[in-house]
Amino acid sequence: MEKIILTAAITGAETTREKNPALPLTPAEQAADAAACVAAGAAIIHLHVRDKEGRPSQDPGDFKRAIEAIRAACRPEPIIQLSTGGAAGDSPESRLEPIIRLKPEMASLNVGSMSFGEDVFINHPRDVAEMARHFQQAGVVPEVEVYGPSHIDIAKTLVKKGLINRPVHYQFVLGVPGGVGGDIRNLVFMRDSIDPRDSWGVAGIGRFELPLAVHAMMMGGRIRVGFEDNVYWARGVLAKSNAQLVKRIADIAAVAGLKLASPQEARRMLGIAG
Ligand code: KMH
Ligand code: ZN
Where are the domains of the chain? Predict the structure, then answer.
């Protein structure tokens, strides 16, 4: 079996300190948190940033400060995967800005629109095509975020149009209210719906995080955990840190005899030059 690429989604845009007081917000907090996640086995840090008031931000300056702090704190250096999803309601232009200005190794690419909890997450086909073109121009490897089977069909059309390169790296985000639910049969259906040449991982939202991660592990998939998706350790018990959630997955993998990819191995697997 391929080594498992483990992603820590440490902050998110919608998670707040009210939901979990251990949420990292400042560059220094994100750097310390990311370092603990890398030490626990994460190869990728999926990164959202906040402004000085703690509000979600797509400002390249805010991203730059966080990236520099994370790179200085982490050994080995993880892949820092910038979010171009931002917060629901962010403009397409602001979401694209970090790609143009910072040219990261990897970033998320959202291809479909949907209800997103109490919000609407709009990804107009015109803006998605523009975003994908910029990824290609800047040599940024996309992680294609899909919240249900219809988004896989959109991604396949983008591949046909030459706007996303093969192999596609899908992230199945399951359990967002407005997207497909976090039942295991949905994971199996999504996995069976992609081209076998492509790769996939799963991010289960809330109570779906752990069961989906464990199933994905056995199915040869990649895994994402962290406060962006889930702030709980168990029902009614808050996680102490992102690293605690990462370590649980690393421990389960070790018991199952599975190996985690280092950041450098993950770069090779994802076709990132490094
Ligand atoms: N905050 C969500 C509306 C991504 O990072 O690419 C979108 C999101 C996806 O978090
Ligand atoms: Zn995100």
Answer: 6-270
128: buried, middle or exposed (CB in 10 Å: 19+, 13-18, 0-12)?
buried
Instruction: Give pLDDT tens digits for 74-126.
Output: 999 999 999 999 999 999 999 999 999 999 999 999 999 999 999 999 999 99
C-alpha 87 – ligand 1 centre gap (Å): 6
Residue with the two structure tokens 């629901």: 88
Label the pairing between strands 56-57 and 79-82.
Answer: unpaired
Question: How many A from CA of 109 to the centre of ligand 1?
Answer: 9
Looking at ligand 1, which residue's alpha carbon is closest to its atom 4? 85
- Give the class (CATH, top level) of 6-270: alpha beta
Give residue 207's identity as a one-letter amino acid code.
Answer: R
Ligand 1 proximal residues by C-beta, below 6 Å: 13-14, 83-85, 87-88, 108, 110, 116, 121, 145
| DSSP codes joined into one string, 89-136 | T--HHHHHHHHHHH--SEEEEE---EEETTEEE---HHHHHHHHHHHH
Out of 91, 145, 224, 230, give the residue to mutate to test ligand 1, the one with the largest number of ligand atoms within 8 Å of its CB.
Answer: 145
Number of H helices, E strands in the chain: 9, 14
Burial of 245 from C-beta contacts in 10 A (0-12 / 13-18 / 19+):
buried
pTM above 0.90, yes or no: yes
Distance (Å) of CA 39 to CA 47, 96, 137, 172: 17, 31, 33, 25
Percentages (nearest 5) of helix, strand, coil residues in the chain: 40, 20, 40
